[in-house]
Amino acid sequence: MIYCYYVIYYLSALREVCDKIIFVSDSDLPENEKNKLSFFCDFVQAYHHGQYDWGSYKFGYIIAKQNNLLQNNLKLYLILRRLWLSWTFATFFRNKT
User: Fold this and answer.
1) CA 3, CA 90: separation in Å to the nearest integer?
2) Per residue in 19-36, pLDDT tens?
């Protein structure tokens, strides 16, 4: 079983416009599912931490800070996976610059 097909699509689209992707989830995922996500993500943290979306943002920020990703990157996007894509990330970011 692949972890939600739309999440894989979402991450592959995001990979087209982002140098680094940190995936944080408040769900326990089996190791084989984490491995599938790591194909698209540089960091995968998926266990029940009980802090929901804001906790996931916090842990993602901590991962970015610990790995010196905030020093060289001018933009940090905190994105919920619940958002359904009706556009491509490339189109969205092109219109924001």
Assistant:
1) 24
2) 889 999 888 889 988 898
